[in-house]
Design brief:
By secondary structure, the chain is mainly alpha-helical. The protein folds into two domains: 40 residues, no CATH class; 107 residues, AhpD-like, CATH 1.20.1290. Helices cover 60% and strands 0% of the residues. It is globular and about 50 Å long.
Length: 181
């Protein structure tokens, strides 16, 4: 399976550096970054956003952020995003049962905390089209999360949605994160 367009034959040097770093970190060819080299402004903007995304911040630990990323990936039905964001879920304390539930009925999974269930529910709302925010859910999320955490939750889900839309619009297939190297 190939993307809708090929990567450029010549990638500007300053973008090659960023691509090299991302591929070194992931251990995979990062086709999204390579194809974005056709328009360096989009590549730079996307790279900066990715570099500044929350990886852990107070109570917003790696587990809850991984749950947000996985939920948004499934909600957007992005195979590349699901592959990348679900990879190594066990290392973030997310069981196979919990991971599978993010595609459907997560509410019946007893191992999710109430905060995690609220984060999953809000991520689904953020990821739906059209957007429709339910005041009761917003109030529950605001009560369970600090203002800073609320912004981290919303921006993390929105960041995954950005990538999901862009990657699908470019026809980029999964990179094989779930495959054994």
């Amino acid at each position: 399976m190939q993307a809708f367009i090929e990567q450029p034959k010549r990638i500007p040097f300053f973008l090659k550096i960023g691509i090299w770093f991302s591929e070194r970190i992931t251990g995979k060819t990062m086709l999204p970054a390579r194809i974005l080299a056709w328009y360096p402004k989009a590549a730079i903007g996307s790279g900066i956003m990715e570099a500044l995304v929350a990886h852990e911040d107070g109570e917003m630990d790696q587990r809850i952020l991984k749950l947000i990323r996985m939920t948004a990936s499934h909600a957007a039905a992005c195979p590349f995003c699901i592959d990348m964001n679900s990879h190594e879920h066990l290392q973030h304390g997310i069981t196979d049962e919990e991971a599978a539930s993010l595609r459907g009925d997560y509410e019946s999974v007893s191992t999710f905390s109430e905060r995690e269930k609220l984060a999953i529910a809000y991520t689904r709302v953020i990821s739906q089209t059209p957007l429709k925010f339910y005041p009761e859910l917003v109030d529950k999320v605001k009560a369970a999360f600090t203002e800073r955490e609320f912004v981290i939750l919303a921006s993390t889900a929105a960041q995954v949605n950005y990538w999901a839309r862009l990657i699908q619009a470019l026809g980029i297939p999964p990179a094989g994160f779930g495959e054994n190297n």
